[in-house]
Write a structure and sequence with these properties.
Blueprint (H helix, E strand, L loop, with lengths): L1 H8 L7 H9 L4 H7 L17 H12 L4 H11 L8 H8 L1
Length: 97
């Protein structure tokens, strides 16, 4: 979401899909960076299609690093959701949503 906000606020800086992907890649660390790093060579024969398409890049990121079972994850989060005494209702609603 933060990347998309930057893209919207600075459209001249992110005129191509590749610029958006490169910007997003610059925030990756650890395992995610290690996964994408082999694709970041200057060898055009090894260049995946998602390198020039921000939506495809997001799909690749979600497939490999998104939740494994979204429904089970949501159930666990709902079971653990509690409104603490020092929280306002707004925080609870945001966490619930």
């Amino acid at each position: 979401m933060q990347c998309k906000l930057n893209f919207q606020s600075k459209p001249k800086s992110f005129q191509t899909e590749q610029l958006k992907v490169n910007y997003s890649l610059s925030f990756l660390k650890g395992t995610a960076l290690n996964y994408f790093e082999p694709y970041l060579t200057d060898d055009p024969t090894n260049e995946p299609t998602w390198l020039n398409d921000y939506e495809l890049f997001n799909e690749e990121l979600l497939i490999n690093f998104g939740p494994y079972d979204m429904m089970a994850d949501a159930e666990v989060e709902l079971e653990q959701l509690v409104m603490k005494d020092n929280h306002k209702a707004t925080k609870f609603f945001i966490d619930f949503y």
